[in-house]
Amino acid sequence: MPHVRPATLSRYLLQGQLISRGCLQTRPRVQASSITTPHVQLAQYLHTETSESPSNGRASVGVPFRKQLKDEAKKQKALGKKKKKKNVNNQVVDGWELTVGIEIHAQLNTAKKLFSGATTSFNDSPNTHVAYFDLATPGSQPLFQKETLLPALRAALALNCEVQPISRFDRKHYFHWDQPSGYQITQYYEPFARDGRIQLQSRDGIAAEDGESVSIGIKQIQMEQDTAKTLAQPGDVHWIDFNRVGMPLIEIITHPEIHYPATAAAFVRKVQNLLNAVDACVSGMEAGGLRADVNVSVRRTDDPSNPLGQRTEIKNLSSFKAVEDAIIAERDRQIAVLEAGGVIAGETRGWSIGSTETRHLRGKEGEVDYRYMPDPDIAPLLIAPDLVTHLRDTMGELPDDVVDALIRDFGLSSKDAMSLVSLDGGMRVEYFWNVVARLQSQLGANAPQEHKPCFQLAANWILHEFGRLTAERSDESALDLGFSQEGECIRVPAQHLADLIHHLYNRRITAKVAKELLWAIFRGRVPGEYHTVLDAIEKEGLWFEELSSDEYAALADDAVRGQEDILRQFLDAKVFPQGKLMFLVGRMVRLGQEERIDPKNAEAVMRDRIQSVYVPALKD
Amino acid sequence: MPPLSRRQHMGSMSARYVRCIQLRAAFGLTATPSRAAHTPIRWYATTGGYTDRQDNNEISNIRLAVKDNIAAKGFQTTCASNILAGTEIPFAATIVTQLRNHGMEVVGKAGMDEFGMGTHSTTSAFESVHNAHPLEKYSAGGSSGGSAVAVKEGRADIALGTDTGGSVRMPAAYTGTVGFKPSYGMLSRWGVVPYANSLDTVGFLARTVQPIREVIIGSNLYKEHDSRDPTSLPDTVRSRCTIEREGYTSSGQRLETLEGLTFGLPLEYNIEELDSRIRQGWLQALNAIQTLGGRVVPVSLPSTRNALSAYYVIAPAEAASNLAKYDGIRYGKRDTNGTSDAQDGVLYARTRGSGFGNEVKRRILLGSYTLSSEAIDNYFIQAQKVRQLVRRDFDRIFKLDNPLLDEQHFDLSEMEESIGIETKLGPAQVDFLVCPTAPTTPPLLEHVRNQTPLDLYMNDVFTVPASLAGLPAISIPMDLSIDPASEEQKLLHFGGLQLIGQYWDDARILSVAERLSGHVAKASAGKL
């Protein structure tokens, strides 16, 4: 499959929210805009075939994607294609059962390659991190790099696998220019981890048909080598970058226990989150650090004793949406073939982003006999139980436990809790904990019980208001927020946000002022011009000094002057004219000192004045 | 090549064994080995001097020939294959660096069978090696034939070879030199182009045992672990093995007597194909051992009959895998004739088609077949089981335990009936096995060319078992009887006598071989 630019991929993602921590240093900064680009528009666009490109597509980065979408739209128009059914309504085909097994390849977060001392790298100059063994230089030998085992073991533990005390490495033979030795070293006969299981819940995005939760079994996890990267050139020319060859991967193989396309996508997303949480992997699907192959088969539901149908394999899926789309397309293709009286051939198929059908890659006759052979140079891998125990004890909290805690302790919605945990590779939730700690020191030990809404407010701002910083009206180039592993944020330090939230929660400043202050922090004016948030409020006189009841009443009187026609409508109304009320409140805000008005209080005063003063006056 | 049927493959390769041994009086004859000026080693122009050479060592000015599958800076390393023509490996093999540090000087690369695959050094892509004067018409043995002839002709004092299934010992036997294959894991393979990694060892050839013992034991080469070779024994294991063995500390002294040592005469090695003169020479050598105070007992190694078949499954399988890397893209020769065959094919089919010789292709096909999903259970897996049985046979026979394994128990009821029981404790146990290295004297090259591959593979029947078990083994020249009426017998007056020892018993094997040399070959005795 041709390499797809990470930016293109991330925009294509279902929600486009998952950003890995590894990207912070290596990705061009401008790509960060994709974090918060309103993807709803893009998604809608995909389904409605408008020919206009989304207005928010930003310069250079956006262009290839826009072009891709345009081409796609043109193609679909030319085909006279009907409007595509939404995936959420397309999880089941009556009379048929779908069965899916998944293989996920993930790049391990290690400093060295699997069998050589060459360092791992991502976007370094081609062919700068290559050892003799990586090039299959005659006379060179593999040297297992023990350190690569640690992230692999953390991954196995996060996926609840049983780590095998003895495992071995085998050679898988096939000829391709990206595989210099003519074989890949993998663990075919005796993988290092087996028999795992992960629990997916409805909040993970599984199909509604799976109910509240579903458990997916993992057959095995094996360590193996990555291949070299091919850089296609014009004409029939390929350049090879051996930096990637020999980098350590894990392959995670599930049992065929998934029956709905959305659940398959949720599984892959969940695995990515788990691997990220235990620091096993460098980057996610959007950066090409994770790839999935799916095995798809269908059988009729009329007779439960039917064996599983013939399966086909779809290789190299590089986004969660592609996983779901490809499974739906392949399921529909297989059903169509069977309903027409045909037979499904065991074959390997491919999928391109945006297409509607899987395509044939190679059939059974084109299958390679991999001639697996134990590698005679590599000793068996012996993993001591105390190492496994140590890693298990020091692994930290898994995302599910964190999400549960956020829902339980702060009353966050499961959607917000999930977002908080998955954004920025877990760094955003670390930031949240940081802000919580600072708020707690201001509010007192019992804050979580007594001031729950304050923490909800903080979560809300960290999720939604932060989003605006990098997306909306960003007159300067949209920059990363700069979250760190320690839970700090370069652009909005936790202490400043905690101060801001604290004042807002206590209604010492208005939401409008708070938003202005957030921008001031983001742009560095705090602490640049003002030492602290408090400093800025005091110097600029931003404290919320609310009008007194009398002042509110006087302001209401001013606002209704000359509006008798409107007031009359309150007299006759069968249904209370809320809209009219808000119109009058709006006038209050415009006429009065905005920074001293709480719209809710203004509304209450106006409602009260209408009922007790203005309407009775009209009756007279 | 159509895959061999199981019967064809496994059946026809086991030799017909003759049970009874007739002890006959040995009669010896000596002849002085000639030193002809013919040069079978290929000399490459060096691209740089030996500035890193250290001459301050106790060994100095020793001329070293290096087999052409071992990387040496300043020399090309072609493995006698077209596909690597002109290739220089950008690093030096550890063994070459070690020997240079011990004061040796690389004087040339020695010819060989292509990638070590052959028994007569005739499968080279460049030229075939022949035996030293006056045996030019005869095979020099393979695959380290060039190394053997180099030392035989005095072009080098010592030569590096590689031994996968007998590739150092066979040439030694055919040229009347000494060839030593150390325990697997003792000498580093970094920089040695693999043929079959699990069997490959670096070996030495010389005219006598002494320089080999001097370099491995005397200069402590056996102690040197190489962190770049994952199969190089770690220091801790080396010291543990060494503590359990004799001969490493008293390296300077020669063994004066064989008293107290038991030598096993493996009955299964007395095959029908054994040349009668070789058989006589073998018996004569056994007499010499007894004269020197050694005890000789017949022993049985029942798995021997399957060892050759197992070897010719395992070695080609590993070779097919190892040779998959040669595609002409990153190094070596690329066949660019015609258009690219990348479309609907393999990018380098043509390169591999023209780059490899017939014997290499034959073994790649053989190996690819025995690893294929339909054949692996019947061939590769079976062969691995046989390999364990072969090792077990050896472990049972030797007095010394195998230091790489936990203590093993051999239940008498599990033993084959053919194994004779010596005492109520079981069969006799021995220090060394003594047998011929090759079943015949060197054949005429003309005959070699007409032989089938299976005939050729048969030559390795005595050398393969020690390779499968990773054991140290040495071939020393032994005198053969001569019919004065036969001109050919006057030329071919020597054979190879092989000693096999338990794992890491290299030091004792070398001293016993050195002691024995003068008594089984009078010619050698004169030189010592």
TrEMBL record, chain A:
<dbReference type="GO" id="GO:0070681">
    <property type="term" value="P:glutaminyl-tRNAGln biosynthesis via transamidation"/>
</dbReference>
<dbReference type="InterPro" id="IPR017958">
    <property type="entry name" value="Gln-tRNA_amidoTrfase_suB_CS"/>
</dbReference>
<dbReference type="InterPro" id="IPR017959">
    <property type="entry name" value="Asn/Gln-tRNA_amidoTrfase_suB/E"/>
</dbReference>
<feature type="domain" description="Asn/Gln amidotransferase">
    <location>
        <begin position="430"/>
        <end position="610"/>
    </location>
</feature>
<keyword id="KW-0496">Mitochondrion</keyword>
<dbReference type="InterPro" id="IPR018027">
    <property type="entry name" value="Asn/Gln_amidotransferase"/>
</dbReference>
<dbReference type="InterPro" id="IPR014746">
    <property type="entry name" value="Gln_synth/guanido_kin_cat_dom"/>
</dbReference>
<keyword id="KW-0648">Protein biosynthesis</keyword>
<keyword id="KW-0067">ATP-binding</keyword>
<dbReference type="Pfam" id="PF02637">
    <property type="entry name" value="GatB_Yqey"/>
</dbReference>
<dbReference type="InterPro" id="IPR003789">
    <property type="entry name" value="Asn/Gln_tRNA_amidoTrase-B-like"/>
</dbReference>
<comment type="similarity">
    <text>Belongs to the GatB/GatE family. GatB subfamily.</text>
</comment>
<dbReference type="GO" id="GO:0030956">
    <property type="term" value="C:glutamyl-tRNA(Gln) amidotransferase complex"/>
</dbReference>
<protein>
    <recommendedName>
        <fullName>Glutamyl-tRNA(Gln) amidotransferase subunit B, mitochondrial</fullName>
        <ecNumber>6.3.5.-</ecNumber>
    </recommendedName>
</protein>
<dbReference type="InterPro" id="IPR004413">
    <property type="entry name" value="GatB"/>
</dbReference>
<dbReference type="GO" id="GO:0005739">
    <property type="term" value="C:mitochondrion"/>
</dbReference>
<dbReference type="GO" id="GO:0050567">
    <property type="term" value="F:glutaminyl-tRNA synthase (glutamine-hydrolyzing) activity"/>
</dbReference>
<dbReference type="Pfam" id="PF02934">
    <property type="entry name" value="GatB_N"/>
</dbReference>
<comment type="subunit">
    <text>Subunit of the heterotrimeric GatCAB amidotransferase (AdT) complex, composed of A, B and C subunits.</text>
</comment>
<comment type="function">
    <text>Allows the formation of correctly charged Gln-tRNA(Gln) through the transamidation of misacylated Glu-tRNA(Gln) in the mitochondria. The reaction takes place in the presence of glutamine and ATP through an activated gamma-phospho-Glu-tRNA(Gln).</text>
</comment>
<dbReference type="InterPro" id="IPR006075">
    <property type="entry name" value="Asn/Gln-tRNA_Trfase_suB/E_cat"/>
</dbReference>
<dbReference type="GO" id="GO:0005524">
    <property type="term" value="F:ATP binding"/>
</dbReference>
UniProtKB/TrEMBL annotation, chain B:
<dbReference type="InterPro" id="IPR000120">
    <property type="entry name" value="Amidase"/>
</dbReference>
<dbReference type="GO" id="GO:0070681">
    <property type="term" value="P:glutaminyl-tRNAGln biosynthesis via transamidation"/>
</dbReference>
<dbReference type="GO" id="GO:0050567">
    <property type="term" value="F:glutaminyl-tRNA synthase (glutamine-hydrolyzing) activity"/>
</dbReference>
<dbReference type="GO" id="GO:0032543">
    <property type="term" value="P:mitochondrial translation"/>
</dbReference>
<feature type="active site" description="Acyl-ester intermediate">
    <location>
        <position position="167"/>
    </location>
</feature>
<comment type="subunit">
    <text>Subunit of the heterotrimeric GatCAB amidotransferase (AdT) complex, composed of A, B and C subunits.</text>
</comment>
<dbReference type="Pfam" id="PF01425">
    <property type="entry name" value="Amidase"/>
</dbReference>
<dbReference type="InterPro" id="IPR004412">
    <property type="entry name" value="GatA"/>
</dbReference>
<comment type="function">
    <text>Allows the formation of correctly charged Gln-tRNA(Gln) through the transamidation of misacylated Glu-tRNA(Gln) in the mitochondria. The reaction takes place in the presence of glutamine and ATP through an activated gamma-phospho-Glu-tRNA(Gln).</text>
</comment>
<dbReference type="InterPro" id="IPR023631">
    <property type="entry name" value="Amidase_dom"/>
</dbReference>
<keyword id="KW-0496">Mitochondrion</keyword>
<dbReference type="GO" id="GO:0030956">
    <property type="term" value="C:glutamyl-tRNA(Gln) amidotransferase complex"/>
</dbReference>
<dbReference type="GO" id="GO:0005739">
    <property type="term" value="C:mitochondrion"/>
</dbReference>
<comment type="similarity">
    <text>Belongs to the amidase family. GatA subfamily.</text>
</comment>
<keyword id="KW-0436">Ligase</keyword>
<feature type="domain" description="Amidase">
    <location>
        <begin position="57"/>
        <end position="510"/>
    </location>
</feature>
<keyword id="KW-0648">Protein biosynthesis</keyword>
<feature type="active site" description="Charge relay system">
    <location>
        <position position="143"/>
    </location>
</feature>
<dbReference type="GO" id="GO:0005524">
    <property type="term" value="F:ATP binding"/>
</dbReference>
<keyword id="KW-0067">ATP-binding</keyword>
<feature type="active site" description="Charge relay system">
    <location>
        <position position="67"/>
    </location>
</feature>
<dbReference type="InterPro" id="IPR036928">
    <property type="entry name" value="AS_sf"/>
</dbReference>
